[in-house]
């Protein structure tokens, strides 16, 4: 043993390099992002545990058809034996903690470890704050929004953290949207759920850093999540009708967009968002349109996942970058406009020791004129 050997520190565990197999866990593999990413990862030589919500796979043909086609593709691929060996499909409802723990255990049993957790579940509730407060049913929609978009990722993250801590290595990648920066009229609860999970992850990142666990938030344009997951609409109120309310409400924008996607001049699927009953739908995008829509996001996630020095946040696309820059510029300008007022409440240092309150001392706050 050389003299310097005693001075060597144990090497910090590293992620597999991008030319070595990585082991992924996808929480919503039957979504357009999940399908395209799974295909990309298998072609790259990675291992994939694909979480699939049972109710979507079994009861919603418009949601499950593309994933079933993907499974057929895996079975007929020229490297089908290796693709099959590197893909594990598990039932997963992230709202149920026991299913999260079972799915993670199955992933470890199949592939020996998990390197990257990709949280990509989402659901969109359409309605203003008042529209979502009209009845017990609409109030339940708010609860469901947070169960899927906030507590779901929290559950699967908590189920995975012990695995990452034990090997002192891991990467959590969370898919949100630029709605994590921007308020959007008519999507108040959806935006609130995005801000909630991002705040949770910002704090979590500091807690897990000592264990060499990385955390990245990927923020594509809003339509990536909105048009590739279930949309549920609360009944509209006349006060927020397009004729009387100038705010560009998401209900009207999405309704027009869905009608154009369907390509019909007759009453179409977009009208469901104006129903007097709670309605749910999956946007009727063609397979090719879905793949084009998510291509940039899939490329970004595949490049970031398992990186030794990944970004804390990554905004996907020029439009998203421009929009977030404008928001940050507005925040900065407003901060400067009111900086004198903000700093005026600071308590100035004094050589004179403060008297106790029992001696009649008072605190005065001077508001600048």
TrEMBL record:
| Region Disordered: start-end pairs | 349-369
Q: Which residues form the signal peptide?
A: none
Q: SUPFAM superfamilies, from UniProt?
A: NAD(P)-binding Rossmann-fold domains
Question: Which organism does this sequence originate in?
Answer: Friedmanniomyces simplex
Gene Ontology molecular functions: oxidoreductase activity
Q: Gene3D superfamilies, per this entry? A: NAD(P)-binding Rossmann-like Domain
Tell me which UniProt keywords the record has, alphabetically. Oxidoreductase
Oxidoreductase in keyword set: yes
Family named by the database record: Belongs to the short-chain dehydrogenases/reductases (SDR) family.
UniProt lineage: Eukaryota, Fungi, Dikarya, Ascomycota, Pezizomycotina
Specify the protein name: NAD(P)-binding protein
């Amino acid at each position: 043993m050389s003299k310097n050997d005693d001075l060597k520190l144990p090497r910090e565990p590293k992620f597999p390099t991008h030319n070595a197999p990585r082991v992924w866990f996808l929480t919503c593999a039957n979504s357009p992002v999940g399908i395209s990413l799974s295909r990309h990862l298998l072609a790259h030589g990675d291992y994939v545990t694909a979480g699939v919500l049972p109710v979507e796979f079994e009861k919603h043909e418009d949601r499950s058809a593309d994933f079933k086609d993907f499974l057929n593709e895996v079975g007929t691929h020229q490297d089908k034996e290796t693709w099959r060996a590197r893909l594990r499909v598990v039932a997963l409802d992230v709202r149920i903690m026991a299913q999260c723990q079972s799915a993670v255990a199955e992933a470890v049993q199949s592939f020996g470890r998990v390197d990257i957790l990709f949280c990509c579940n989402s659901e969109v509730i359409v309605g203003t704050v008042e529209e979502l407060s009209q009845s017990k049913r609409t109030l339940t929609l708010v609860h469901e929004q947070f169960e899927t978009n906030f507590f779901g990722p929290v559950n699967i993250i908590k189920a995975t953290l012990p695995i990452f801590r034990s090997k002192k290595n891991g990467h959590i990648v969370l898919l949100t949207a630029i709605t994590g920066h921007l308020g959007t009229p008519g999507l108040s609860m959806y935006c609130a759920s995005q801000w909630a999970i991002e705040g949770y992850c910002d704090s979590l990142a500091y807690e897990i850093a000592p264990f060499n666990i990385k955390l990245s938030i990927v923020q594509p344009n809003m339509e990536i999540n909105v048009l590739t997951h279930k949309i549920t609409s609360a009944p509209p109120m006349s006060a927020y009708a397009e004729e009387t309310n100038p705010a560009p409400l998401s209900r009207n924008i999405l309704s027009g967009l869905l009608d154009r996607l369907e390509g019909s001049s007759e009453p179409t699927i977009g009208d469901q968002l104006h129903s007097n009953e709670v309605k749910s739908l999956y946007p009727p995008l063609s397979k090719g349109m879905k793949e084009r829509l998510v291509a940039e996001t899939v490329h970004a996630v595949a490049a970031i996942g398992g990186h030794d020095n990944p970004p804390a946040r990554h905004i996907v696309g020029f439009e998203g970058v421009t929009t977030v820059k404008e928001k940050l510029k507005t925040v900065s300008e407003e901060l400067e406009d009111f900086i004198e007022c903000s700093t005026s409440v600071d308590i100035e240092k004094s050589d004179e020791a403060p008297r106790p309150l029992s001696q009649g001392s008072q605190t005065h706050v001077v508001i600048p004129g």
